[in-house]
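Hey, can you fold this one?
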Amino acid sequence: MLTSTLAPGVLPPDLRVYAVGDVHGCLGHLDDLHADIAADLAERPIADALLIHLGDYVDRGPDSSRVVDRLLRKPAIPGLRMANLMGNHEHMMLSVLAAGDPQMARLWLRNGGDASLRSWGIDIDEPPARWRHRLPAEHLAWLRGLDLTHQLGNYLFVHAGVRPGIALSEQTPDDLMWIREPFLSWQGNLGLIVVHGHTPGEHPVLRVNRIGIDTGAVLGGRLTCAVLQENQIAFLSR
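Sure. Predicted structure:
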């Protein structure tokens, strides 16, 4: 049985959210965590449950292509809806594939893109203009179709965070996918409780205005899931 504590936000009754942090090509962690989520859902059935992945499925780890394929085909967790958000690494990858620009490609490769290319069986010495033709069309379509945000109750689910003092409708995609400061150190009201990944740490971060769940799976850490229900929160990690 999960040990819950008081959460900073509230979800509607009879709804549970499982929010998963940055995967970065770590398929083993993801499969193990999905199994734990399925077990929790079987042990504690609920009328409505949603699984949200907060982005950064690709780069650095060995299994980017398999992670995308797994999420595209949906995990076999009966009774669980799913939403997938875009991270800065998906955005960077798509930008490089669209432009085929060697300079952009070098930056992406230095940030873990080389591992992604290898996972799709692409030689990094091939011209960048050819890379997009080597990915399955359904993988590209799934990546392009990822959402930037998802809102439930007074929670906002997003990859990186938000810029304080700016209305949600005016947040830029760059901030939503890339921001760290001044978001991370902001102690005031952000309008909604922000559940995010992007900034790795040894443990989840639980603040009155945000919940950070990137625990560095690809850096030798763990993949973490925040389990939110009504005014409670618990964590699963693998």
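The CA atoms of residues 48 and 190 lie 27 Å apart. Let me know if you want another pass with a different chain boundary.
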